[in-house]
C-alpha cells in the first residue's frame, strides 16, 4: 500500500529544525491536505532546504525535468515551496511550515484554513514553541533604549529597515486567522512587514503593498503606538521580515498567554528600568505591557527582569519619561546566531536531530 503523502510531508517538515509535531488525531494531515494536492505533497516531501533546479531534482528523485518545473512553479506561486535564482536557472526548496508555508497563505487564508490551523495549534503547536532556540526574537521599539547604550545593527529596528532596499506590508495572518474563527483582536491588521535587498522588489506584487523607506518607518511607529511588539527571525543577518505581535493573536506569543510556555520568543538584550524620581504611579505602563513584567510597589512601577522581554512598548506609554531600556548583564544575554543557517545548526543540535539538507 502506498504511504499517505501527507504523512510523508508532515514527517519531513517535522525533521526540519523548525519542527512540525504530529497530533494524535491527524490534525496536521488535514491542515496539509487543505494546502497541497496528494501529488504536490509527495513532491514537497522529497525537496531539500537547499536550492535545486528542476533538472537536479529530476536527477535525484526521477521524473521529467520539464514536467517537474511546471509543477514546482505552480507550487511556488501558491507559497507552498520557495523559488530562488540558482546557477542554471530557477531553483526550488522546501520551506518549514512555520515560519514559511503557513505565513505565505496570508492572501488566501479562509475560514476553513483558519479552523484547521487552530485545531493543529491547540493540539500540537505548543511542542514546537518549547523547542530552543526560539524561532523569533524581540527587537526594541526605536528610541526606547538609554542614549548612552551601544546598540548593534541587528538589535535596532530602524537599522534593519535602513539596511533594506525595498519594503512592503501585508495583513497579519495571525490576526486574520483569529478573526475568521470568531475571536478578533483590536490591534491593526496591516502591519506585517517584509523587506528585500532588490530595489522595487514589491512594486508589481499583487499581494504585497510596496512602501517607501519613510512609509516603512511610519508603519513601525504606528504598530508600536498600538502596543505591538517588534519581532524578527532569531539571527543577525539576512533579516527579511518584521512581525508586529500581540499575545492575543500572534501564533508565537499566544503560546505564552494561552499555553503557559515561558520562552516562546528570544528576549532582546535589553531590560526595562524605572526612574522612581519621575514615576507618578499612573499605571499606564502596566496596562501596556503584554508580558506581566510590571507591577506597582508603593507609588512606583517595578520591573520583573525575568518576564520583561525588552520590547520597549511600555516606554512609549509613559508620559513622564520614567521608563527606559538598558542593556542586560552580559551573562543574561544569549548569543544571536549570525545567519539563519547557523540558527538551524543550533536548533537541530538542541532537538537532537540531524541537520538534513
Molecular structure report:
The structure is a single chain. This protein is α+β, with helices and mostly antiparallel strands. It has three domains: 5-122, Arc Repressor Mutant, subunit A (Orthogonal Bundle); 135-257, no CATH class; 270-332, Alpha-Beta Plaits (2-Layer Sandwich). Helices cover 35% and strands 15% of the residues. The protein contains 14 helices and twelve strands. It has helices spanning 5-14, 27-35, 38-44, 54-61, 65-77, 97-101, 111-129, 157-162, 173-180, 213-225, 254-257, 284-288, 313-317, 340-351; strands spanning 82-86, 89-93, 136-138, 166-170, 192-196, 209-211, 229-233, 241-245, 270-274, 294-297, 300-303, 323-327. Strands 3-7-8-5-4-6 form a six-stranded antiparallel sheet, with helices on one face. A hairpin with a 2-residue loop joins β10 and β11 (300-303). α4 (54-61) crosses α5 (65-77). The radius of gyration is 21 Å and the shape is globular. The protein starts with a helix and ends in a 6-residue tail after the last helix. The relative contact order is 0.12. The mean pLDDT is 95.
Write the layout of secondary structure elements.
Elements: H1 5-14, H2 27-35, H3 38-44, H4 54-61, H5 65-77, E1 82-86, E2 89-93, H6 97-101, H7 111-129, E3 136-138, H8 157-162, E4 166-170, H9 173-180, E5 192-196, E6 209-211, H10 213-225, E7 229-233, E8 241-245, H11 254-257, E9 270-274, H12 284-288, E10 294-297, E11 300-303, H13 313-317, E12 323-327, H14 340-351
Antiparallel strand pairs: 1-2, 3-7, 4-5, 4-6, 5-8, 7-8, 9-12, 10-11
Helix pairs in contact: 1-2, 1-3, 2-7, 4-5, 7-9
Amino acid at each position: 500500500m502506498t504511504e499517505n503523502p501527507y504523512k510523508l510531508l508532515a514527517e519531513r517538515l517535522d525533521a526540519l529544525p523548525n519542527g512540525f509535531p504530529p497530533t494524535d488525531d491527524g490534525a496536521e494531515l488535514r491542515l496539509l491536505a487543505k494546502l497541497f494536492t496528494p501529488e504536490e505533497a509527495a513532491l514537497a516531501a522529497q525537496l531539500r532546504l537547499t536550492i535545486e533546479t528542476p533538472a537536479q531534482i529530476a536527477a535525484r528523485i526521477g521524473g521529467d525535468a520539464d514536467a517537474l518545473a511546471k509543477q514546482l512553479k505552480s507550487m511556488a506561486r501558491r507559497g507552498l515551496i520557495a523559488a530562488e535564482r540558482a546557477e542554471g536557472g530557477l531553483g526550488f526548496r522546501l520551506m518549514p511550515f512555520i515560519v514559511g508555508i503557513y505565513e505565505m497563505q496570508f492572501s488566501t487564508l479562509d475560514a476553513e484554513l483558519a479552523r484547521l490551523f487552530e485545531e493543529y495549534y491547540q493540539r500540537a503547536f505548543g511542542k514546537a514553541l518549547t523547542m530552543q532556540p526560539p524561532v523569533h526574537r524581540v527587537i526594541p521599539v526605536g528610541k526606547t533604549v538609554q542614549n548612552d547604550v551601544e546598540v548593534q545593527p541587528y538589535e535596532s529596528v530602524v537599522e534593519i529597515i535602513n539596511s533594506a532596499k525595498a519594503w512592503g506590508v501585508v495583513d497579519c495572518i495571525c490576526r486574520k486567522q483569529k478573526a475568521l474563527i470568531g475571536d478578533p483582536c483590536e490591534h491593526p491588521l496591516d502591519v506585517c512587514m517584509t523587506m528585500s535587498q532588490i530595489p522595487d522588489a514589491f512594486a508589481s506584487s499583487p499581494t504585497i503593498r510596496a512602501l517607501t523607506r519613510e512609509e516603512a518607518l511610519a508603519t513601525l511607529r504606528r504598530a508600536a503606538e498600538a502596543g505591538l511588539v517588534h519581532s524578527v527571525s532569531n539571527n543577525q543577518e539576512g533579516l527579511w521580515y518584521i512581525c508586529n505581535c500581540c499575545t492575543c493573536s500572534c501564533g508565537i506569543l499566544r503560546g505564552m498567554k494561552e499555553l503557559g510556555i515561558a520562552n516562546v520568543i528570544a528576549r532582546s538584550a535589553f531590560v526595562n528600568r524605572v526612574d522612581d524620581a519621575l514615576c507618578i504611579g499612573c499605571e499606564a505602563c502596566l496596562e501596556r505591557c503584554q508580558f506581566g513584567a510590571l507591577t506597582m510597589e508603593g507609588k512606583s512601577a517595578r520591573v520583573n527582569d525575568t518576564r520583561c522581554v525588552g520590547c520597549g512598548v511600555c516606554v512609549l506609554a509613559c508620559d513622564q519619561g520614567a521608563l527606559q531600556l538598558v542593556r542586560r548583564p552580559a551573562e543574561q544575554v544569549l548569543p544571536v546566531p549570525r545567519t539563519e543557517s547557523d540558527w538551524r545548526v543550533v536548533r537541530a543540535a538542541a532537538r537532537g536531530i540531524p541537520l538534513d539538507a
